[in-house]
Amino acid sequence: MRAVDLIRRKRDGHALDADEIRAFVTGVVDGSWPDYQISALLMAIVLRGMTADEAAVLTDAMVRSGARLDFAAWGAAVVDKHSTGGVGDKVSLVLGPLAAACGVVVPMISGRGLGHTGGTLDKLEAIPGFRTRLSADEIRRSLERVGCALVGQTDDMVPADRRLYALRDVTGTVESIPLISASILSKKIAEGIKGLVLDVKVGSGAFMQTDDDARALATSIIRIAAINGVRTEAVLTAMDRPLGRAVGNAVEVIEAIETLKGRGPADTEQVCVHLTARMLVLGGVGGDHADAERRVRAAIASGEGLDRLRRIIEAQGGDAAVVDDYTRLPTPTYRVTVSAPSSGVFAPMDAGAVGRASVILGAGRDRVDADVDPSAGIELLLPPGADVTAGEAVLAVGGRDRARVDAARDQLVHAVRIVSGTPVLTPLVREVLDEASVA
Ligand code: URA
After folding, report:
1. How far apart are CA 384 and CA 60, in angstroms?
2. Domain extents for the chain?
3. Could you report the per-residue pLDDT of 269-324, keeping only the tens digit for each?
């Protein structure tokens, strides 16, 4: 099967058959397809699309390109959550421990932040000693002991995605629903999950800027996952403003811990409880959604969720005492505030603007190989909708690099809006899609 023939067929709008797609993925992994032919086929896919069946085969071939975890013999409810990424999105740090405390096994393999969206691994690594690079055996042992592992991808999982994503990144071929779906799902299916809750963030701080785009991605992933035997539900959640009041690394760890203590911002708690409850129902351990939400809230009230986080941190070599003593986390050496320019009502901040400021600050990265500052963070000192007087501090900006802190503050000054009436917030949980609704 010649690469050029597959490229021509896709260029001319034909569907590729399963053998052709599997030959392509084999060529990606064994090196027999050169970069230029892989990139040409990727561009043809961007322009011509793929059917759900084609994308499902692509996903399966990518999963099979490397090692996968397998929990079939455990007979456990193995369910994960994936977020398409947002600003202040610390949901995984709350949801993983809560779901595990309620009886779900969560082999959560996450990524690092890139661009204006933060990454779970960067946040976790703000905890002194916390190891995110675990071998497959270590992941299995952690799951046996504490029911949840919060880790990065092992080197031998889904190698096809590593090569494909690196090429997509530099050839303008990231923006394709089937390619994004296969990329996300192959990494999740390789975790050995039976169910997946997808948090599709929508708005200026998200990959998907409109409900229509978010719905299209959710529909594609649900269909492809179903063909591959993984039940998936997608929840569209608001990302026109940051989630919660903290954006950065250590500051988000603190907000996650506060949420597990029952003292988190209302929006962070609502999204975490909602998504965790969906994982319980998908895993068959939660009754209906209302029952499951009650169980999740009970795990917060009893401290079981917090205790689970302590055990996860210990299991991964981190300093679990941070849960009770936030001074053990990296603290900024330089901190400034942004004040309200006038009296009125503190309007919700634009998530994209806050996310971009967090990259300038060094809390996120603009290049894959850039370091992040674990102490860097932006804190909203008041909830959106609060009354403020002129000159009152509304944001705190901190980090270890004074020039970056000042530059981020200068950006944020322009993003603060004080309005006269009560601002109307778009619904936090906007829509839920499942196999039935996309059939
Ligand atoms: N995230 C992924 O993992 N893959 C994509 O293609 C896009 C976002």
Report:
1. 44
2. 3-49, 72-157+164-325+429-438, 330-419
3. 999 999 999 999 999 997 999 999 999 999 999 999 999 999 999 999 999 999 99
